[in-house]
Specification:
Blueprint: H1 3-21, H2 25-37, H3 39-46, H4 48-66, H5 71-93, H6 109-119, H7 121-141, H8 143-170, H9 178-205
């Protein structure tokens, strides 16, 4: 059994699910477009990460490549990534209510999803501080490990948002249900665990 491959898959799965279900600009847009314009509109918004995250990953790789000769810099990035994961995890442990505004915009759902994700700072912080370091570490093992992490992440972030659109289309009550909050709290606990791992790695890289 390839433990490192399973590790890459598990990290991609947890991080993808957390990003997919957690309240945020894109999640709110998935819900609002589904409620206003139907399931198809919500599903279009769900595809936005595939189109927006790839150029963000490319920028993150270029940035981290320039810092490759400075181990302490990677330590600082790991600490920042751990702080970001801890922030997301604690927010998921105390999930806020999802609110939907009342306006009725034109149903350009995919374009709205792409714009919302590009203007949201979270994908940039995630890929620079969390996603790309994991991706590069997996790539040190093999391209298969890196592909496994990326495939799991995108499958579950898009898949969870598609599922959320289906659930919201079937019943608005799902957003306030115990099941949704249980999902968020479970993912929040796992994010806190990953945050502690990033803190440990960051401290070791800067010499503590």
């Amino acid at each position: 059994m390839d433990v490192q491959l399973l590790d890459a898959l598990s990290k991609g799965t947890v991080l993808g699910l957390a990003a997919g279900f957690s309240p945020g600009p894109l999640t709110v847009l998935v819900i609002s477009e589904t409620l206003r314009h139907g399931l198809r509109a919500g599903m279009k918004v769900s595809l936005a990460p595939i189109l927006t995250d790839l150029p963000i990953i490319a920028l993150a790789v270029l940035l981290l490549d320039r810092l490759s000769s400075h181990p302490a810099a990677f330590g600082v990035i790991a600490l920042l990534g751990g702080g970001f994961l801890l922030h997301l995890g604690l927010n998921s442990l105390r999930p806020p209510a999802v609110t939907i505004q009342a306006e009725q915009p034109a149903p350009r759902s995919l374009l709205r999803g792409i714009t919302a994700n590009f203007l949201n700072p979270n994908p940039y912080v995630f890929w620079i501080g969390v996603g790309t370091p994991i991706l590069l570490t997996a790539f040190d093992q093999s391209w298969t490990h890196a592909a496994a992490f990326a495939a799991a992440f995108f499958f579950f972030i898009v898949g969870s948002k598609l599922l959320l659109a289906h659930l919201v289309d079937g019943s608005r009550a799902f957003l306030s249900s115990g099941a949704y909050r249980w999902i968020l709290r479970t993912l929040g606990f796992l994010l806190v665990v990953y945050a502690l791992m990033f803190f440990r790695d960051g401290l070791s890289r800067i010499g503590f």
